[in-house]
Amino acid sequence: MRKITSVISVLMASSLVLAACGSNNNNNNAASSNAPAATTPAASDTPAASSAAPSEDITQKKVTISIYYPTPDRVEDRKLEDDKIARFNQVYPNVEIVKSDWQYNPQEIGIKMGANEAPTLFNTYATEGKFLAEKGWAADITDLWNAYDKKDQFNKLLASQFILNDKVFGIPQRGYVVGTVVNTKMLKDKGITPPSFDWTWDDMLNTAKAATDAGAGISGIAPMGKGNEAGWNWTNFLFEAGGEIQTVDGKVTAAFNSEAGLKALDFYNKLKWEANAIPQDFALGWGDAVGAFAQGRTAMVIAGPDGPVDQGLNQGGMQPGDLEVYPMPAAQAGGKHTGVLGGDFLVINPNASKDEQQIAFQYAVFDYFSDKGLASLDANIQARKGENKFYIPPVIEYFDMASEYGQKVKAVYDKYDNVYQYKQEVLDMLDARPEAQYNTQDYYAAMTNVIQEVFSKKGVDLKAQLDAAAATVQSKFYDSIKL
């Protein structure tokens, strides 16, 4: 991700919270935002106001589309989707909507497309835009996008992840910039002064070391150590040290086995073997690490902030004053607070007919930018207040917070004391950086193996580990890419 601190403060003016390995704040599971689905408005005011202008009366045609449908464990999200389907069918009674609970998987998408089994409208994450477009597995929706009268109110930073060579291949839902969520109450209870927001790696290391109580099963920090999310977590430090995942110049070349990569890996080595500040069982995925934070078993967790904040406040019994959202620490004083940029998107199946693609687009944006949606958001926050729960916005909304609609949403947020508010000081520090253009998940997996080696064995040759991982990624993936 490029340096966009000034852009972030405008685009995210009050929305820091949130997908990387296979879900939404997991950016690919590593960053699943876990933002409540009801952040999306609930109903369009009129069909014309919230969908692309049709070239003919699509309501007179029988059309069937299949849509991404939340998995069975997401009961509330399913209720919201069922409500949306019912409202959509009131406007488009000619459309049959088939529910698909298939979750996007980069290892399965080719098979799904080849067998013509992928849904008409499916979910994916920010790393996949270029991959899907180049494989021909995402429809070019440029005409539908350009005909949509609210397109200029989308969050430009988020939308840009699926705009390639001026063509549009995806519809943003929500996004995040990775940060560190800190249990400041735990620190204060131990007599530790929380670091400033303008903190460094040394501050993180010293704070984690001081907060650790191995005898009580409490770690100072819980870096993710299994699944692709382990590589995703570490990549923030690679970026902060000035490193790159890959270079693209006529060919794709692994670049993470650099001096910056070595510096970032050495920091992980220090967290484990110098500070002894990570969990004894370090093989934690996204849910494990965030769960440990919510349960008070670790003082810090690295993720899209909305997930840990949501679990800490709504499941862990914390109060807003018990925790703080920090930017990622700078490698040294005066450095950038760089975090991985990720998010969730909807993609239309290119094998679908033009009518199906048009209906799929209209379904995707049906609840966007609507006054009825604002009423739904208001009701959602009120309901949470009645349950003594907090509403946690995503790090980056699908809309630009500076837009007309964004300001309406902010006005709703400002009405309630149970909406978690992020400090502008932190927003102003954020330096968001997108992930690699090619084979991001494969790179994450390779680095996860390296991280597990470092955490499990003292004295590992860090440079040799990085070089071996880079050679593997290069030969197995990058060398086959034709530019």
Automatic annotation (TrEMBL):
Keywords: Signal. Residues 31-57 are annotated as: Disordered. The keyword Signal applies. The keyword Endoplasmic reticulum does not apply. Pfam families: SBP_bac_1. Residues 1-19 form the signal peptide. InterPro entries: Bact_solute-bd_prot1, SBP. Residues 31-55 have a biased composition (Low complexity). This is Extracellular solute-binding protein. It comes from Cohnella yongneupensis.
